[in-house]
Amino acid sequence: MINRALWLLGLLPLSWAIDAQGSVKSTVPGSYLVEFPMDNTSSASDLDAYMRQFSREMADRQIPFRFVNNYTTVFHGCNIAVGGEYTSLMSTLESVKVVATDTQMSSDAFTKIARRSLVENPPLPQLAHESTNYDKLLAKHNVTGKGVKIGIIDSGIDYNHPAFGSCYKTPGCRIQYGHDFVGDNFNGSNTPQPDDDPMDNCNGHGTHVAGIAAGNDNAFRGTAPEATLGIYRVMGCRGKTSTSVMMAALQMAYNDGMDVINVSISFPSGFTADIASFRTEAFAKKGVIVVASVGNEGIYSMWMAGSPAVGSGALAVGSSDPEFYWSQVVNITTSTGARTYSRSAPQDHLHHFNFVNTPVMVAENGGSNDACSPLTHSAKGSILVTFMGECSNEVKVQNAINAGAVGLIIAMRPGGDILSPVGLRGNYSIPAVTSHYELYSDIKIWGSGGNHPMLSSDEAFARRHNAEGPVIASYSSWGPGTDLSPKPDLIAPGSNIYSALPLSMGRYGIISGTSMSSPYVSGIVALMREKFPQGNVTEIKSLLIHVANLLRETLTSSSGPSTRDLGSIVQQGGGTINVENIMDDFGLTIENRISIGDDTEAPPENPNWRKFTVTLKNNTPKTYRLNFFHHVGLTITSYSDNKTYADNITYHNFPIVVRYQPVVNEMIQPFSTFTRTGFIELDNVPADKFYVVTGYNFFRIYDGNRYIPRQAPWMGLRGRFRDIPMLPSPGHQLAPMLYSPDGTSATSPPYSYDASQGQLPKFRFHLMFNCELILFQIGQQTGDSAVQYHAIEYMYATYARRNYELLDNPFYNFTWTGTFKVDNTVNTYKPAPAGTYFFSMRLLKPTAKENETDAFVTWESPEFQFLPAA
Ligand SMILES: *[C@@H]1O[C@H](CO)[C@@H](O)[C@H](O)[C@H]1NC(C)=O
Ligand SMILES: *[C@@H]1O[C@H](CO)[C@@H](O)[C@H](O)[C@H]1NC(C)=O
Ligand SMILES: *[C@@H]1O[C@H](CO)[C@@H](O)[C@H](O)[C@H]1NC(C)=O
Ligand SMILES: *[C@@H]1O[C@H](CO)[C@@H](O)[C@H](O)[C@H]1NC(C)=O
Ligand SMILES: *[C@@H]1O[C@H](CO)[C@@H](O)[C@H](O)[C@H]1NC(C)=O
Ligand SMILES: *[C@@H]1O[C@H](CO)[C@@H](O)[C@H](O)[C@H]1NC(C)=O
Ligand SMILES: *[C@@H]1O[C@H](CO)[C@@H](O)[C@H](O)[C@H]1NC(C)=O
Ligand SMILES: *[C@@H]1O[C@H](CO)[C@@H](O)[C@H](O)[C@H]1NC(C)=O
Ligand SMILES: *[C@@H]1O[C@H](CO)[C@@H](O)[C@H](O)[C@H]1NC(C)=O
Ligand SMILES: *[C@@H]1O[C@H](CO)[C@@H](O)[C@H](O)[C@H]1NC(C)=O
Ligand SMILES: *[C@@H]1O[C@H](CO)[C@@H](O)[C@H](O)[C@H]1NC(C)=O
């Protein structure tokens, strides 16, 4: 069974609370995004009119604000800075379609930068190409991306790097467009300091991404090595940005005429309708492909595809571990021979892991090898080996230093598939790297055999082979989208990817993450654009998705024996990119992606069956002969027996029957469409745990000479989507809870809060499923069982991400400050009188509309007494 890489936990700093703006996200204080109610028939003068109307309405309501960014193409609206909390008030303005808090976003790479000096070495070739059949594509088609513009929205680029021609915007230079929206010091929430220079010399992410898509330096080649680049810098040195800045960058990239826009940045929300999804469908309609990484939240289980990748127009890319990769290594020599193991870079670019014949030993600390307590032996002059987990990496390094070690190797958990450098908070005198579990287990055996293993390691990169072949990377976020959209669309090499780094950071190095997969695909999309300038977004996406290589998962099924079967499309989409045939028979496309929900048509004979239609469009002058057949994929769920949301996924191979009229030797004529309708029979899938079922329709298309591969994945949900639990049931340890006046849960209700003593009513809740809208109110007992509901300051939260059970504090907190909103059209509050109150929270169910009956799940707290301060 693939280990769902718990070790990643320590590397993902996340803290979520309802913040001062009433949002359940990390927001940018005082910054809001406003969308006007314009559609594709609106004109520029309509936009002006909305701008003026908006200014007027804001003045009428006496809301102080200023314009920060105006969005005039694709997205129509603005980014404003507002002094105070006016979200619900602004949402009532006539000129406003949507108002949203501005969200902080992070890059989807989690590997720190490895330093390596290549002054005396030529760069290495991109080994990921060997996993994607890139050379076979080039053997058939002379494509380099020449003449195609790729927009990279990232941390900038080191344009002095030879991989990009060591030039910037000069005639003939490959980088012809660029802007810095933020400056070095931007951290996602402070004031950006824009300028015209997108130089990246302190972060490295953008340079690496640009190298994967379009680098070109001797043997090192990105996927589109002659493409023209537009560099839009949205992250400073710290790798954080915000939705408002991203939108400004997307707008500029669009205005500069970028054909492909690459976004390796995400926020894990999973809602197409969220402004953080950037209205990618509008870009797609204008012919621009937004390629976006799906996120690195794989260990947090399903429904986590991030924004903007989840946007319906975006090509959402997850990550695979390639079959061949470059890695720095350690060699271990024993009296019986020598072995080589992959290693990560050290904790930062100031440390080096260079040793010659140095003793290496496993940490022993009181019956354990976790290095979490002081060692029971000296490690003086030796390299110490331990494994990930049980305590922080800082504790392990400090114990290694105290024992006299000169270096530390932290082994991954068994099956932990990528080597991420040890993220250490603080400065430590010795270098720490990670390696695979085998290094730890081997040294343990050798050491106990009285053998004295010795270690050698330098900075050089060695070619490594992943014996399992390409596999789905366990950190790659799982879909589907919260609207049941099949996401990700496909996966591409993202683990241990070698590419350019700023010259000041070592020139070349390895980073991992879905951030690395998405530029790989962006470069390929650029090649498609070069070859097929008239090709539309649907056709290009279809070819990439429907000829990819489906990967298998080795797994222990919960309802059957251990097996190896096609992985779920909810993690791999159409599979890992295989470019060999993407340019053959262009125009032979599968147009629909099949997502089955509870509203999908069922035939009269059986309500558990679901109808599907596959459409193959032949927009070529050729005639093809067609067969097709079906393979059922894995069924998965993230719910355990009592429906508690588990942060891990179980696999099942329930017998699912797919029935359609056999397709044998059917001819498909030039410029015609083939459709076939069938039924997916879900009788054998229990309806209780929201199983997500998947399968693949395989086409065998023959053109008289050869077979052309195409396959159409489908996915569906068994059960009523709307009934997915939002809150744990009463009595569960994670159920919503009112805090006692001293902020604990030591006593039981009823509670009485005295604001003059600094006591404010507060509750916590664990959100089990992403929620589009949460409404908060205060209920007041006004006599004989009569209740009045009051609006309060932070009335609602939108696009809330579910809490992760794996985190120490998997709750959102909500505090009431003791005032009521006078009404919802003016921004005035009055203190609540002393009385008996309760919290009321309503959560919108998946796909429900606010105005429908049965749209909300409601929770009400126990009653409490409240005494105002004065
Ligand atoms: C919520 O409040 C409790 C009690 O004050 C506190 O211990 C906890 O850290 C808070 N949680 C978050 C996520 O802010
Ligand atoms: C405008 O949008 C509507 C609804 O989304 C669509 O039906 C129509 O085709 C669009 N028109 C143009 C010109 O894109
Ligand atoms: C945005 O538009 C408003 C209204 O037309 C204008 O006053 C403001 O200067 C513009 N702001 C920017 C940053 O372009
Ligand atoms: C590839 O195309 C370029 C022009 O775009 C041309 O100069 C070159 O000779 C071609 N190479 C091959 C092998 O056809
Ligand atoms: C960003 O920087 C500002 C000002 O330097 C600081 O107040 C804020 O806390 C920082 N935010 C983050 C998320 O680091
Ligand atoms: C696409 O975006 C990702 C992440 O932002 C980046 O790594 C990659 O280089 C970009 N690719 C292109 C072609 O811009
Ligand atoms: C490690 O072993 C490999 C393969 O034998 C060799 O090429 C490399 O030079 C060795 N590296 C060190 C630092 O000993
Ligand atoms: C893309 O091209 C195909 C022809 O291959 C056409 O049927 C389809 O409508 C086009 N889609 C869009 C969005 O223009
Ligand atoms: C995953 O879920 C199963 C079934 O609920 C449970 O038995 C197992 O302990 C969980 N594993 C982890 C690592 O949480
Ligand atoms: C549900 O099951 C999990 C383990 O599968 C357990 O930890 C939890 O307490 C259970 N919840 C209830 C409400 O029984
Ligand atoms: C509910 O609201 C939606 C828009 O969100 C609207 O399209 C629909 O007609 C409304 N339905 C009813 C019954 O009012």
Automatic annotation (TrEMBL):
One of its GO terms (biological process) is proteolysis. One of its GO terms (cellular component) is extracellular space. GO terms for molecular function: serine-type endopeptidase activity. Keywords: Cell wall, Hydrolase, Protease, Secreted, Serine protease, Signal. InterPro entries: PA_dom_sf, PA_domain, Peptidase_S8/S53_dom, Peptidase_S8/S53_dom_sf, Peptidase_S8_Asp-AS, Peptidase_S8_His-AS, Peptidase_S8_Ser-AS, Peptidase_S8_subtilisin-like. Residues 1-17 form the signal peptide. Residues 363-416 form the PA domain. The active site is at D154 (charge relay system), H205 (charge relay system), S515 (charge relay system). It holds the Pfam family PA. Residues 145-550 form the Peptidase S8/S53 domain. PROSITE patterns: SUBTILASE, SUBTILASE_ASP, SUBTILASE_HIS, SUBTILASE_SER. PANTHER family: PEPTIDASE S8 (PTHR43806), SERIN ENDOPEPTIDASE (PTHR43806:SF66). Belongs to the peptidase S8 family. This is Peptidase S8/S53 domain-containing protein.
